[in-house]
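Support request, please re-run this one:
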Amino acid sequence: MDFDNRITDETEAVAAALRALYDRFGYSRYRMGKFEEYDLYSRNKDFLVSEGVITFTDTNGRLMALKPDVTLSIIRNDRDGDGDVRKLYYNENVYRVSARTGVFREIPQTGLECLGAVDGYCVGEVLWLAAKSLEAAERDFVLSVSHLGVLSALADAVSPREEVRAALIRCVGEKNLHGVAAVCAEAGLAPEAAAPLEKLISVYGDPDSALGALSGEDLPAGARAGLDELRTALSVFEGTPLKEKVRVDFSAVGDRNYYNGVVFRGFVEGLPESVLSGGQYDGLMRKMGKKSRAIGFAVYMDLLERLDGKLPAFDADVMLVYGGAGSDPGLHRAVRALTDGGRTVFVTAKPNEKVRCRTLCRYENGEVRTVEENA
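Re-run finished. Output below.
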């Protein structure tokens, strides 16, 4: 048994809370199979969290893949251009390389997508649900929100060259002030050309102070429009306790080939990396031949399992080691006595170092004898 891949009771409780939350807001459950045609993923590799994809050849000769992502499947099967809004959520396992172990894992993932005639209300609702999803983890959290339109407009104003703009956006994502100046200098631009992006890097904080810091700046029209959209989206938190959990942070960026508008990441206390990520991805919709707009996010349940206190200290209360063939009827009675007393028991013919147990016991001559106690 691979104990490292088990979903803990606490994580399953969070997943159940998320399903109930999305149900209350009218999102319908989306279910998919374990695999899709590989072509779907090969054409959108840059969108995937992990490049690795497990493939196999079907009986009809088609190259198939165990799904590394759910969003691509939702878009592929979405009806398009009917003027409606479609709200979906999923609770699926995806198959990709784990950033922690470097090997393929079956990873539980929960998220939602809002597609179709997405307007300002939809964007605000998805942001609200992202914050409530983080709150469900019962940890202190921060939702970092940005707007790619602001960043793109400022980068476009600095240089018409795509390689320069891409380098500048990377620097903003890394909060690299010196990098912005270096890119401008290498491109032969005046030192003051870097000033607007350097200002953007320095902006971080609650929505009022962060957006207020940019209100007096001389910004391109596209950047001002982006700030207005961001301000409208964040108004969903006005007058609520969740507002203090929101931070405007323009280092939250995404691939401009896929993302546009509002993008965001969620962090919880105890983990250095984001456990939630999402944003508007109209660019991905266009790339896949869709006219609709879209916004969504994913919660990485495997990361939540790593929180202190979320992974159980032990796999079982007791490891009960027996000798011989295990045919002694008394062994079954001994196991039932332990389980009836409320303890979990892992029974094995020999000690198993991969199983973490609070108490190591041996069954000998019809009796259970404690060998070792673990703190």
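The chain has 13 helices and 16 strands. The first helix runs from residue 9 to 24.
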